[in-house]
């Protein structure tokens, strides 16, 4: 749930290393003041490496934070990267409609893991904290016509796993076990814990 406490003066200002409006909305809704800086480089393809899905998500979030640190002199940078994993295979953002269909066919009727890596990085000192969160998402079997209608909508574009739970993709999701905001793109419960850890220096 969004933060409803009017006293948000103690919250740090954050530099959001993302062009995602969903992540920006989540931070704003939870009372954070943010400066948005898009990473200047495309994230690398780590699919051929030996990283586990959580390690991949964390590595990509750190890549984004480090890239933005080259553009800003000061500030606490927060970056997130979300992937979907099923049976050890990772699914990121689809490159086109055909790719989106392939991803949805693989995920339809399954319970998959939505994994978001989160990095906090101080732009000046380069101190960093990297964590991840996992949410199980169960998706019902998608029928051919409704899958094509969903592909026609374009809601799959720019979303890990080719669906957005905050958009029309939620029509195919029957169960979410874990953080809902993680599936949207930034696990706010984890971020709050990380910021607490950051401030205490633990």
Which features does this protein show?
alpha/beta; Maf protein; seven-stranded mixed beta sheet; disordered N terminus; single chain
Please tell me about this protein's structure.
The protein is α/β, with parallel strands linked by helices and 202 residues long. It has a single domain (14-200), classed as Maf protein (Alpha-Beta Complex), CATH 3.90.950.10. Helix content is 32%, strand content 24%. It contains six helices and seven strands, in the order βαβαββαββαβαα. The chain has helices at residues 21-29, 53-69, 97-107, 144-153, 180-184, 188-200, and strands at 14-16, 34-36, 76-86, 89-91, 111-122, 128-139, 173-177. Strands 1, 2, 3, 4, 5, 6 and 7 form a seven-stranded mixed β-sheet that branches. β5 (111-122) and β6 form a beta hairpin. The two termini are 27 Å apart. The model is unreliable at 1-8 (pLDDT under 50).
β-strand percent reads: 15-25%
Radius of gyration: 17 Å
N-end to C-end Cα span: 27 Å
Would you identify the CATH architecture? Alpha-Beta Complex
Number of domains: 1
Strand count, sense and barrel status of the largest sheet are: 7 strands, mixed
Instruction: Let me know the average pLDDT.
Output: 89
Strand runs, count: 7
Q: What percent of the residues sit in helical stretches (DSSP H or I)? A: 25-40%
Text of the CATH class: Alpha Beta
What structural class do helix, strand and pairing data support? alpha/beta
Q: Which regions are unreliable across 5 or more consecutive residues at pLDDT < 50?
A: 1-8
Individual helix count: 6
Q: Based on CA inertia axes, which overall geometry fits?
A: elongated
Q: H/E series, N to C?
A: EHEHEEHEEHEHH
CATH topology: Maf protein
């Amino acid at each position: 749930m969004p933060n409803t406490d009017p006293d948000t003066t103690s919250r740090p200002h954050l530099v959001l290393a993302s062009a995602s409006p969903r992540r920006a909305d989540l931070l704003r809704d939870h009372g954070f003041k943010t400066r948005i800086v898009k990473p200047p480089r495309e994230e690398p393809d780590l699919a051929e490496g030996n990283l586990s899905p959580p390690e991949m998500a964390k590595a990509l979030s750190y890549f984004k934070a480090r890239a933005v640190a080259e553009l800003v002199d000061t500030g606490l940078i927060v970056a997130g990267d979300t992937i979907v994993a099923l049976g050890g295979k990772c699914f990121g953002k689809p490159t086109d409609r055909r790719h989106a269909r392939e991803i949805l066919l693989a995920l339809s009727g399954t319970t998959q893991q939505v994994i978001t890596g989160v990095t906090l990085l101080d732009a000046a000192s380069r101190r960093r904290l990297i964590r991840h969160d996992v949410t199980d998402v169960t998706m019902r079997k998608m029928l051919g016509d409704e899958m094509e209608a969903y592909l026609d909508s374009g809601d799959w574009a720019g979303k890990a796993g080719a669906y957005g739970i905050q958009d029309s993709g939620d029509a195919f999701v029957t169960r979410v076990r874990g953080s809902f905001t993680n599936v949207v793109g930034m696990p706010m419960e984890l971020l709050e814990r990380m910021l607490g850890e950051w401030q205490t220096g633990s």
